[in-house]
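Hey all, quick one. A colleague (J.T.) asked me to put the WTA job into the tracker so the inputs and the C-alpha cells live in one place instead of scattered across chat threads. No bug as far as I know, just bookkeeping. Sequence used:
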Amino acid sequence: MAGGEEFELETGELPAERIAPPQSFMEQANVTPAQLQRFTEEGVDAWEMAGDLLTWDEPYRTVFDEDAGDWFPDGQLNAAANCLDRHLADRKNQRALVWEGQLGETRTETYLELSRKVNAFAAGLRDLGVEAGDVVTLHMPVIPELVVAMLACARIGAVHAVVFAGFSAEALATRMAESESAYLVVSDGYYRRGDAVSLTNRAETVRAGLDQEVTTVVVDRLDDRHQYSLGDRDHRYEELLAAHSGETVDPVTRAATDELFLIYTSGTTGKPKRVTHTTGGYLAHTAWTSHAVLDIEPSDTYLCTADIGWITGHSYIVYGPLALGATVLLREGEADQTPKTKLWELVEKHAVDILYTSPTAIRTFMKWGEEYPAESDLSSLRLLGTVGEPINPEVWRWLYEQIGNEECPVVDTWWQTETGGHLITTIPGVDEMQPGTAGPPLPGVEATVVDETGTDVDPNTGGYLAIETPWPGMPRELSTETRWAETSDVLPDSEWAYMTGDGAVMVEDEYVTILGRVDDVINVGGRRYGTLELESIIIGVEDVAEAAVVSGHEDHGQGIYAYANPAAGADETAVRAAINRAIEQQIGSFARPDRIVLTPELPKTSSGKIMRRLLTDIARGNDLGDTSALRNPEVVGEIDSATNSD
Ligand code: WTA
C-alpha cells in the first residue's frame, strides 16, 4: 500500500456472537427483506428506491450510467428544496432543528422558520455576488446558522466547503486557496468545553494568505464578549438576514451530477484531500441510508453527536435527516461534555428516538459509569448507531445493554468521507447484529478483501478492504476516468474497485470486521489525520531532522504519537514546544500529538526506511518480535522505554 510498508493484518480473535434484532423493532422498521430483495433481482436499478426518496424537478430516466460513472445523470433537483420546501405542506410548524448550545441555551427552528432564514440568507449571498458554482467556505461550530448557510448555498447552487471550526487560520486559508473560494461565512468564535475561543483573526489571516479577494460574513456566537471589527468587505450575518427578511429565492435546479459541496479530509499525500459530493447521488444515498439504516421517520427526534465540520455531520445531521423531514437535535461541542449526566438529560428532555455517536464517546461514558445514564429515562430510544472507528464487543455490549436496554438495535456503520454515506452495516430490522463487526455491505454494494497482489483472500483472513461496485454517494473524484481513490499498488482483479485504505476480515456470509487504517492515514478518536502531513510539519521545525507519526491504542485512550529526531545539542523542551506550536498553527490544536518522543535515531530498515510499523507496536505496547534485521536494532529498547516509561 501507500508508502510501500508492510502492514501486519492481525485478525486476533474474531467476534462470533450474533444477536437477532428485537421483534418490536422489526415490526416497525422502515425497510423489509422483501424490499431489499430488489437489489438481488434488479442490480443497480434497485437504487431507484434511493432516488425515489427525493423530489426531482426533472425526473431521472437512468439510475446509473456506467460509462460516465454518473448517478441519476439526466435528473435535476435542488437539495435545499428537498430538505425544506417539500416538507412545508405537511409539517411547516414541526421543528426542523432544536439547538442545545454549550452555555445551556436552547433555540428551535420549525421547518417554516428555517426555510424563511434560508431564503433570506440565500438572497443575501446573491446580493454579495455569489453565483451557482461559486465556492462558499463556512467556518463555525454547530449552531443553526451553519445549517442555514449550507442550505442557502444549496438553494442558489453554490458549493459549500465547511471547514471544521477547530482548524487554524492557516489551515482555513490553505483550503480556501485550494478551492479558490472568494466567500467566507465565519463565526466570531466558538466555545470549547465552555471557554470562548475567538476566530476574529481568521478573516485577516485568510486575506493575507490568499490571492483572491474574500468577502466575509460574520456570525455572532460570542455575543459582546468579543468585538469583531468589520473591514470593507465584511458583513454581519444578522444585518444581512434582516435586510433580506421576507424575500424568497427560487431554488436553482441542479443536475444530479453537479457538485453539492466540497469537504477536505486527511489523505496520504501530505496535503488536505479534496472530496466533492454530488447533488443527486449523494443526497439519494444519505436519504436512503438515513431511512434504511438509521430508520429515521419524519416524526422522530434524532441526535447525532458529530460536528457538522466533518462528513458525519454533513450526511447524518444535515442532509439525510432533513431530506426525510425529521426533527434534528443539534448539539454544540464534544459528545462527552460534562456534567456526565448531560447527554442523557437531553435524550430524556427531547424524547430522542435515535442516537448516533462514536465509539470514543461511548468508551468515555463507560468509564464514567452506568450510574449517569441510569438517572435519565432513556425509554424513548429506538435505535443506536456508531461511526468513526471499530467498536469492540465489550463497548458494543455496554451500549446495547446500558443505553438501549437490549431493546434497540445497534448499527455499527462503516463509511468514509469519500463514500458520502454508509457502505457496510447491518440493516437494523433485517440483519442479525454481531458485536465488534460492522456487518455486511449494504444491499447493492459488493466488497472484497484482497492481498498485496489484489487477489481475494480466503474468508477469515486479514487483507485490504476494497469496494467493487459503484454506489450513489461516491464522490465526483471516483467517476469518469479517475476510478481509483488514490494510486495504490493493490488493484483488485475486478472491473471497478475503490481501495478504502482500511484493513478488514470477511467471513463466508460477508460480515466484515474492520481492522483499521493500513495506509498513511491514522484514525484517532474517530478523527482522521494524514501522517505525512503531520510529519512534514514536524520536520519543518528548526532542529528536527526526521519524524514519524503513528497512532497509539484506542482502548487505552492514547492518540497521536510523534517520534522526532532532534539535532545534537538541541534544547528538548524548546523542540517539543516548537513542534506543538507548528501543528497548532498549521492544522489546529486538536491535532497536537498526545506524546512527543524525542530520540537520537529512528528505527530504520536496512534500506534506510523508517519502520513506522515498529513504532506503532511500541506506542501500542505490542510484542515487538524480532528486530534484529533493522539497520539500528540497538535504538529499539531506548525508544520503547522513552515511550512507555510513565
Ligand atoms: C474508520 C468517518 C471501523 C475507517 C465517517 C475509515 C470505521 C475512516 C468505522 C473514515 C466503523 C469509520 N468501524 N472503522 N464503523 N467508520 N471508520 O473519512 O478507518 O473521517 O477509513 O469518515 O474511519 O474516516 P472519515
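Adding what we noticed when we looked at it: The chain has three domains: 4-11+445-517, 23-412, 521-644. Residues 265, 310-312, 387-390, 412-417, 438, 500-502, 514, 516-517, 523, 528 surround WTA (CB under 6 Å).
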